[in-house]
């Protein structure tokens, strides 16, 4: 993708910006019935950006009822594939038209560098919308082998009302991973953005109406997880919750399902992903870049963050020295400065969590070789510098728990078996990577690593065409690819007896 050059001075754009605040329910932009709002704080400077509608249980009920009515009367589900495609393509066009604004909203809301928001998050969200628009008529059923007097076939039917609950690290992109395939399959959706990052989801809801998506088909309900999210997940009229977020909330969602209508649940949860560098790595410079950016991209707030670096003993010192150099060269700064590569963490709470993990690693005897401090305090925001610990032991907290911040733990290994054992020694199984010039070692490793995504001689080198999701406690269900379309459908067998 060609990179967009951003203007250096954001002042004028900021002055013109009117961040959205209202929920999108049944085709209308509305406040909560109670009038409740919450403070939406920008981690860039710690200031309140705007007051956003805080949906309560009754608002959620209204949104679910609107989504149900839209589904049952077929205003979207029953449209032909060409009509559905036209609406989703139009939505992608409108997102492209407003890409600068969406990027600015995203960067302000979560503290990510504006260059990343404009060149990565927003284009990928748009691409996701287009990809599912193109894919929606490539879903085929099956014809069974039947006796001559019978015709049996199986069809994929939309589930009904999908509750999508998404996190704050890639707000619009993660939302589109769920909304696009769910809509493409003919469902109605109630989207609950994270309270830290409601803005682009609200804008998406308004753009979808402008694109011609019928009212009620996509509802957006900003609000607190324990209020709006819980009400959505406990609803008797929601057919599925598609979730990306933390393990503890994922567990609750399964309980809510059990306590309500046994709705389906798909969970994309956290990770503690290992990146393994063998001494025969074919490109140590590329591996060093991947080791540093694999964990520090997006301030480390990435579920697939390569937060455990496993290096073969003979090259460890020289390799780590290069990783430290790459990390030192990252430009930490104001998220709205187009040259910034590393911005603010999403909230004061997330910053303190990262600082606590750093203190724990110090106290448990890991060797801090880079960073470890809060920085840019004068800006009023929540910034933690890239931090690296060497000599991390497998039993230490840093090797076991997800930080979801810019903290890398380095370990050393001496054999292929030891590398695999260390890599798989985690409750998580989202991503893993290995660097080697030996094709047999690479293929053996790809088979032995217990993770939903495995990268060989690269990190995060995949796209919308490939399924995304985890093994073990990283969850179940897949985003991206045609598998995601099937996730939002049920399979119906029909048998017709010929008389
Ligand atoms: P979180 O689980 O606290 O919040 C995620 C969403 O769940 C938010 O919208 C929140 O409002 C909602 N929520 C919170 N409590 C709820 C409840 N009781 N009922 C219903 N909804 C509720 O997670 P987070 O802090 O936003 O995100 C960080 C976590 O997400 C990390 O653990 C990270 O690894 C994970 N994550 C995973 C992926 C992936 O694809 N596997 C991607 C991004 C983030």
Write the layout of secondary structure elements.
Blueprint (H helix, E strand, L loop, with lengths): L10 H6 L6 E3 L2 E3 L6 E5 L6 E6 L3 H16 L8 H17 L1 H12 L3 H22 L6 E2 L6 E9 L2 E5 L5 H14 L3 E5 L6 H13 L6 E3 L4 H10 L5 E5 L2 H13 L4 E5 L5 E4 L6 H13 L11 E5 L3 H13 L19 H16 L3 E4 L3 E2 L7 E2 L2 E4 L6 H4 L6 E7 L2 H9 L3 E2 L1 E5 L3 H10 L4 E4 L14 E2 L2 E2 L4 H7 L1 E9 L2
Parallel strand pairs: 7-8, 7-10, 8-9, 10-11, 12-13, 12-20, 13-18, 17-18, 20-21
Antiparallel strand pairs: 1-2, 3-4, 5-6, 6-24, 11-23, 14-17, 15-16, 19-22
Helix pairs in contact: 2-8, 3-5, 3-7, 4-5, 5-6, 10-11
Bound molecules: nicotinamide-adenine-dinucleotide.
For the largest beta sheet, what order do the strands appear in spatially?
14-17-18-13-12-20-21
Percent in strands: 15-25%
Distance between the termini: 58 Å
- CATH fold name of the largest domain: Aldehyde Dehydrogenase, Chain A, domain 1
User: Biggest sheet, in brief?
Assistant: 7 strands, mixed
Q: Can you identify the CATH class of the largest domain?
A: Alpha Beta
> What compounds are bound to the protein?
nicotinamide-adenine-dinucleotide
Count of DSSP H/I helices: 16
Q: Give me the CATH architecture of the largest domain, please.
A: 3-Layer(aba) Sandwich
GO molecular function, one term: aldehyde dehydrogenase (NAD+) activity
Keywords: Oxidoreductase
Protein name: NADP+-dependent gamma-glutamyl-gamma-aminobutyraldehyde dehydrogenase
Enzyme class: oxidoreductase
């Amino acid at each position: 993708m060609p990179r967009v050059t951003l203007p250096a001075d954001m002042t004028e754009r900021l002055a013109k910006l009117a961040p959205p605040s209202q929920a999108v329910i049944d085709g209308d932009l509305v406040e909560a019935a109670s009038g409740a709002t919450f403070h939406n704080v920008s981690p860039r400077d710690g200031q309140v950006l705007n007051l956003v509608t805080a949906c309560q249980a009754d608002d959620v009920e209204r949104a679910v009822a609107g989504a149900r009515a839209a589904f049952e009367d077929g205003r979207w589900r029953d449209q032909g594939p060409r009509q559905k495609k036209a609406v989703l393509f139009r939505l992608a066009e409108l997102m492209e038209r407003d890409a600068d604004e969406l990027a600015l909203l995203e960067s302000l809301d979560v503290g990510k560098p504006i260059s990343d928001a404009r060149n990565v998050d927003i284009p990928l969200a748009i691409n996701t919308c287009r990809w599912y628009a193109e894919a929606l008529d490539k879903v085929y059923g099956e014809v069974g082998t039947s006796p001559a007097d019978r015709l049996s076939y199986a069809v994929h039917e939309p589930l009904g009302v999908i509750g999508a609950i998404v996190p704050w690290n890639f707000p619009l992109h993660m939302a589109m991973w769920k909304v696009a395939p769910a809509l493409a399959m003919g469902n109605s959706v109630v989207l609950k953005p994270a309270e830290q990052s409601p803005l682009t989801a609200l804008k998406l809801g308004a753009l979808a109406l402008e694109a011609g998506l019928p009212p009620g088909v996509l509802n957006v309900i900003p609000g607190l997880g324990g209020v709006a999210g819980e009400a959505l997940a406990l609803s008797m009229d929601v057919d599925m919750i598609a979730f990306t977020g933390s393990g503890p909330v994922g567990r609750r969602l399964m309980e809510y399902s059990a306590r309500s209508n046994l709705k389906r649940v798909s969970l994309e949860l956290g990770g503690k992903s290992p990146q393994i560098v063998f001494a025969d790595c074919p490109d140590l410079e590329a591996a060093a870049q991947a080791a540093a950016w694999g964990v520090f991209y997006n301030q480390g707030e990435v579920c697939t963050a390569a937060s455990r670096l496993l290096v073969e003993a003979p090259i460890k010192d020289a390799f780590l020295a290069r990783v430290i150099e790459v990390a030192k060269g990252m430009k930490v700064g104001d998220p709205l400065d187009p040259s910034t590569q590393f911005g603010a963490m999403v909230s004061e709470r997330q910053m303190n969590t990262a600082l606590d993990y750093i203190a724990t690693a110090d106290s448990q005897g890991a060797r801090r070789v880079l960073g470890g401090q809060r920085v840019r305090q004068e800006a009023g925001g929540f910034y933690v510098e890239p931090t690296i610990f060497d000599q991390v032991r497998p039993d230490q907290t840093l090797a076991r728990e997800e930080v979801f911040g810019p903290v890398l733990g380095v370990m050393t290994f001496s054999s292929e078996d030891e590398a695999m054992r260390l890599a798989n020694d985690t409750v998580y199984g989202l991503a893993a990577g290995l660097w080697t010039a030996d094709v047999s070692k690479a293929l053996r490793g790809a088979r032995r690593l217990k993770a939903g995504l495995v990268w060989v001689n690269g990190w995060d080198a995949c796209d919308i065409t490939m399924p995304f999701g985890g093994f073990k406690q990283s969850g179940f269900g897949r985003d991206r690819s045609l598998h995601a379309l099937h996730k939002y459908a049920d399979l119906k067998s029909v048998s017709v007896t010929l008389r």
